[in-house]
Amino acid sequence: MMSRPGSHGSCPVPVHSAERIEIGHGGGGKLTQRLIDTVFRPAFAVSDEDLTCDSAAIGRSEFELAFTTDAYVVQPLFFPGGNIGSLAIFGTVNDLAMSGARALAISAAFVIEEGFAVTDLNRIVETMRDAASRAGVRIVAGDTKVVERGKADGVYIATSGIGEIGSRALIRPQEVRVGDAVIVSGDIGRHGMAVMAARESLGFEPPIESDCAPLFGPVSALIDGGIELHCLRDCTRGGLATALIEIARCADVTIAIEQTKIPVSGPVRGACEILGIDPLYVANEGRFTAIVAGGDAERALSILQRHDDAAAIIGMVGERDGSTDAKIRTIGRTRALDLQTGEQLPRIC
Amino acid sequence: MRFVDEFRDPDGARSVAEAIAATVTRPWTIMEICGGQTHAIVRYGIDHMLPDTISLLHGPGCPVCVTPAGIIDAACTLASQPEVILCSFGDMLRVPGHEQSLLTARTGGADVRMVYSPLDAVTLARENPTREIVFLAIGFETTAPTSAMAVLHAERDGLTNFSLLSSHVLVPPAMRQLLADPTNKVQGFLAAGHVCAVSGYRDYHAIPQRFGIPIVVTGFEPLDILQGILLCVRQLEENRADVENQYRRAVRHTGNRYAQAAVEQVFKVQGQAWRGIGWIEDSGLALRSRFALFDALNRFTEVHVSPERETACISGEVLRGVCKPDDCPMFGNLCTLEHPLGATMVSSEGACAAYYRYRRVSGAA
Predict the structure, then answer these.
(1) pLDDT in tens, B287-304
(2) What is the pLDDT of residue A10?
């Protein structure tokens, strides 16, 4: 460890090596300050005023506010179509968007493993900056903790976000009605398969890219288009199937979807076929399902297709029939969609 | 997607189902051998497209289901040794032994890793020279060639820290044993297309000759299965018993000779215990003595495969086609995907898992 020039005779003060994260980077002292000054501050453009306070003032809103929090743990940290940083920003922005809220401000806390390359941390925070810019949100507060080597998997990021709900209409599962249409905003399964392919070095051709993207754009287009929007749910962990089951349970209805109408890209379908994985349960980071009034279905679809031409009406909401929450019509029969048990594991042959 | 979409076409499926209905004049019972076929049948509701006179029985072709609990026990014991990294296929990790599964062993600190191929385990052995890499090698004729290749690669590379815990099984001996059982109900077989893609179907001709029942080598998509059933029903109605190949786009009569040669070089045929079914002569593959160095049970002489214990689970009867999953009083209440009592509920290809996952809402589409 280097000591500061001219400091002979006094306690050595560690100086930032600029290459690897050290335990001292989380200690709140000079190394922490250096990390903030050289990594976080340039990326997030945090104001001097924000830095002097323990919290950030984000202004007033005339609208109802929405608040959300999430933690991001992904391996590998970098994958085709994004990294843990874009995931953290878009994930939080999208959680707010699913309430019809435009994100105003985000906080980000980093738990970093000792020895983590600062260049990789820079790549992550730069991606976060770009993602925040794309989503039109400010990153206003943060925290850094460093844990000993072997006690974490590179970097974990926890984010919280606050947003304003401009629409007066309630967008929540309880508003879902029998006869509503079920729409998916694009093709499903990209993120989960992209991460799995990168993690396991599966090398699919063409490579599968994550769908990681902010969703408030298409959501606000639906709201601005006057669509009678009853419920929105991003299809993240557990995929489209889990989102539909959760909505149906909450709304006390049955959701019936058609297998043939569910958009899945060729490469994702191929990868799922090879591994024996059902794309309905694969995670997405840039797709949502919208439950809209039946009469608005076609108009809502045309609005969503301006953002992603794979958007599709995949089913409708029906009466609760006592046997299931959500079901899917296949070639020969209608079957139940069930919550997944544990993680989907690739089959043997 | 070429070779998939056209075999999932609803109109095509309906038209073959109508042809089956027009052909059948009497009740017939047909067994699909492979768990992958069982899942496709239940997932797509193929059984609901058939006339009531056709009964489908689910066969013993789920590689995870038939792997003895004692082998899992041995794998867990090996995995708990600090020098060992135990590798296997993904859906093998969840299957319970008598005490625990490999996933539960992992939560207890064992180094258990999922691999996509036995060759990945060889790479792991190369990269970890101070560790012992054991690959839990299970499955039918489909997976045995890559296990054989893994051993050959390990030998070629001079690796001394790689071994197989082998529990490979062969399909035709199980078919013969089922047919020889006096309680047998099977009148025709849909043979597993993937297995035949490797082994070919030359060896299958002896079965119709001896037992007088038809075999149709069949694929895994809805139309494959319906076409397989149609070919089988035609034979039954015409009182023929031949081997036919529905899965021509993947299967040749002689199979994959390169894969067969690798298996022949590394393994020898021996008797094998099947979970829920018991001992079947000439149905397993053991490493030849030349490769004893790569046999985990030979390297770790303190580890043994314990005999199967009695259980309330009826998966053995399900695997033999004696009864169906929902005949079991525990199905869906005491035995669920969340709390499986047997391998047929645990395995992603298991018949009980298929029924549980896909058959809890009825109604033709």
Answers:
(1) 999 999 999 999 999 999
(2) 40
Provide mean pLDDT across the span B73-99: 93
Structural domain ending residue among the three candidates A111, A141, A165: A165
Residue A23 lies in a domain: no
Residues of A in contact with B4 (CB under 8 A): 269, 273
With respect to residue A44, please indicate whether it lies within any of the assigned structural domains.
no
**With a cut of 70, which residues of chain A have pLDDT below it?**
1-18, 46-52, 349
- Residue B362 predicted with pLDDT over 70: no
Q: Output the domain CATH number for residue B265.
A: 3.40.50.11740
User: Mutating which of B43, B116, B120, B361 best tests the A interface, going by the most A Cβ atoms within 10 A?
Assistant: B361
**Residues of chain B with C-beta less than 8 angstroms from the C-beta of A273:** 1, 4
Put simply, the answer to whether A338 touches B116 (Cβ < 8 Å) is no
> Which amino acid would we find at residue A13?
V
**What's the pLDDT score for residue A52?**
67
Query: Is the peptide bond preceding residue B63 cis, with omega within 30 degrees of 0?
Result: no
Chain A residues in contact with B116 (beta carbon < 8 A): 200, 202, 346
Residues of B in contact with A342 (CB under 8 A): 94
As for how many domains chain B has, the answer is 1
Q: What is the pLDDT of residues A103-134, one digit of tens each?
A: 999 999 999 999 999 999 999 999 999 999 99
Domains identified in chain A, total number: 2
As a whole number of Å, the end-to-end CA separation of chain A is 52
Q: Which of A276, A330, A346 sits opposite B44 (nearest CB)?
A: A330
pLDDT: which is higher, B323 or A70: A70
Q: Compare all CA atoms of chain A with the CA of B350 and give the residue at the minimum distance.
A: A347
A18 assigned to some structural domain:
no
Residues A107 and A250 in one domain: no
Which of A107, A182, A192, A98 has its CA nearest to residue A141?
A107
* A304 found inside a domain: yes
Task: Confirm if B320 and B181 have CB atoms less than 8 A apart.
Answer: yes
The DSSP code for B26 is S
Task: Report the gap between the CA of B248 and the closest CA in chain A (Å).
Answer: 19
Residue A203: exposure state from Cβ atoms within 10 A (0-12, 13-18, ≥19): exposed
Give the amino acid at A297: A
Q: What is the mean pLDDT of residues B237-250?
A: 97
pLDDT tens for each residue of A327-342: 999 988 888 898 887 7
C-alpha distance from B182 to closest chain A C-alpha (Å): 32
